[in-house]
Known about the structure:
Blueprint (H helix, E strand, L loop, with lengths): L17 H4 L1 H5 L5 E2 L11 H12 L11 H15 L8 E4 L2 H12 L5 E4 L6 H8 L3 E4 L3 E2 L5 E2 L2 H11 L3 E5 L11 H13 L3 E5 L20 H6 E5 L2 H4 L7 E5 L2 H13 L7 H13 L1 H25 L4 E3 L6 E5 L7 H11 L2 E2 L1 E2 L10 E5 L4 H18 L1
Parallel strand pairs: 1-13, 3-4, 3-7, 7-8, 8-9
Antiparallel strand pairs: 2-10, 5-6, 9-10, 11-12, 12-15, 14-15
Helix pairs in contact: 3-12, 4-12, 5-6, 7-8, 13-15
Amino acid sequence: MKQYDFDRVINREGTWCYKYCELDHVFGRHDLLPLWIADMDFAVCPEITQALVDRFANHPIYGYTKPTDGYVNAIIDWQRKRNNFIFTREEAQFVGGIVTGFALVLNFFTGKGDKVVIQEPVYHPFRNVATANGRVVINNALVPTDDGLFRMNLEELEQIFRDEQPRLMVVCNPHNPVGIAWPAESLAEVARLARKYNVVVFSDEIHADLMLYGNRHHVMATVSDDAAAVTITCGAPSKTFNIAGLKSSWCVIKNPALREPFFTWLENNELCCPHLAAMVATEAAYRCGEEWLRQCVEYIEGNIDFVADYCREHIPCIRAVKPQASFLVWLDCTGLGRCHEDVIDLMVNHAHLGMNDGKMFGVAGQCHMRLNVGVPRSVLVTAMERMAKAVRELK
Ligand SMILES: Cc1ncc(COP(=O)(O)O)c(C=O)c1O
């Protein structure tokens, strides 16, 4: 079996890499280990690089292209095999990124002043994009559970649907920033309520291929007939295979009453034309990347275990909440007994770590940080040692 190398430290400075370029702007300094923006610091599966070299970089003409059967079928086959999510070519469309997909859905299915439900703490662009487009965001806040994860508040959700009459709801499935694999029963109940109250559900499944510790992903649209009727599913190989810069995502809608007008609008406005590199990388990833992904997930699990054990042994006032999916670890820093601003100051100006401020995902992120562990183990060791030293010095 080919062994892929996740230990290799690759210098991303000077490569237009967002997590480096924006350090000064976001954190006010550049001398930080960047453990924030959610891409990984691992080299992609070599078959993806080879495909890009052969069909993209080495071919001297970058002319107009058309999505091939090979590209679309690679998406269809991957979803059938991994998630038993079955759809036809007509039910799938390209979108140039998940946030872009959300913005398109928002603009097509809702109007200014319409209400949109999100479940905070959650990936912040849902709120930002909806607000920037003049929609009213309603927060169906997640409820903390003893293990540091969250559950949905479905009783409140029904009240919101009944009283506020929103047009759209976003389900982050699996959930970012806490990495929750939603149970099928919760998703089915959201779908039942959405159908009852005529709400469209946008299910963001970008982290779905990165299930950890044997947890299972449930594609929202597959959990019930109601779910198939109300759900717009968006997924991508971008997090899975570390190709976010190529902006390759897909949107699947089973219900023709939602799909046909939306896909026609996308086509009429030329909003669904994939970039050549996106198609080439996507097909290569889904056709050749399964073993790379298996090893990558194993490596991520090792990184998460390392962080959780390290906190327990050396920084017990910080709890690393083990995610069920993806490479983001929610650090509960409430045990430090400091205010949120002091926690940020500690991590940035003393530990020199560039992590996500938990509050950007909602008020439940108070005194929490989001740590990206999609990095070589040696980088993580340095990060945790810096964190422990900063906490020691605080006392
Ligand atoms: C839940 C979630 N959705 C969407 C995105 C961004 O996707 P894209 O770059 O395709 O817009 C991210 C990136 O961190 C994410 O975590």
